[in-house]
Amino acid sequence: MATERKPKGKMDTKAMMELYKQLATPGAPHKLLASMAGSWNTKTKSWMEPGKPPEESAGVCEQKMILGGRFLQQECTGQMMGSAFNGMGFTGYDNHTRKFVSTWMDTMGTAIYLFEGPASADGKSFTQRCRYDDPVKGPMEWRSVCKLVDENNIFFEMYGTALGGAEEKMMEMTYTRKV
């Protein structure tokens, strides 16, 4: 794995356990994720081809914190390309790598996508990247941006770059908290 490294030296068991305990303690990034928990209505725009109008759809998303406030679980339903759509993801913040880490899977395929990336300087958004070998476009890098606009609104964007190509906007989703 790219993040593997050699240990810096031996630690006694007590110090090692204290380090693991510190790294397992939710902090400010986990509070950002917790603020995203709840029931949401979604409006999605998907660009299937550059320069063409986006496909628009509506849906719902249920998000909840799990495992003692360490991870946000997301379950979304709606329409995509005229068919029913279901998706599930998990997002956490790895205190050790100082990155948000996410998985995503949905009914549009059988892959599990892995994303990671840092928080913004203001702590209200995070940008993640994922590499995927698309069956049509070949090797791609995806970039997602998730921004907590306020306590009742989230804005999410997804971009894709095919190998040797220019970045293209693929999707945007607006989440509005149900009242």
Mind explaining what this structure looks like?
With 179 residues, the chain is mainly beta. Helices cover 10% and strands 55% of the residues. The protein has helices at 13-23, 28-34; strands at 38-46, 55-66, 71-80, 83-94, 99-106, 113-117, 125-134, 138-150, 153-162, 168-177. The chain has a ten-stranded antiparallel β-sheet with strand order 6-5-4-3-2-1-10-9-8-7. Strand 3 (71-80) and strand 4 (83-94) form a beta hairpin. The termini are far apart.
Number of strands: 10
Structural class: mainly beta
Strand content: over 45%
Helix count, DSSP H or I runs of 4 or more residues: 2
- What composes the largest sheet? 10 strands, antiparallel
Major sheet strand order: 6-5-4-3-2-1-10-9-8-7
Give the H and E element order. HHEEEEEEEEEE
- Give the tally of structural domains: 1
The level-1 CATH class: Mainly Beta
Rg estimate, integer Å:
18 Å
List the keywords:
2 helices, 10 strands, mainly beta, 179 residues, Lipocalin
Topology summary:
Layout: H1 13-23, H2 28-34, E1 38-46, E2 55-66, E3 71-80, E4 83-94, E5 99-106, E6 113-117, E7 125-134, E8 138-150, E9 153-162, E10 168-177
Antiparallel strand pairs: 1-2, 1-10, 2-3, 3-4, 4-5, 5-6, 7-8, 8-9, 9-10
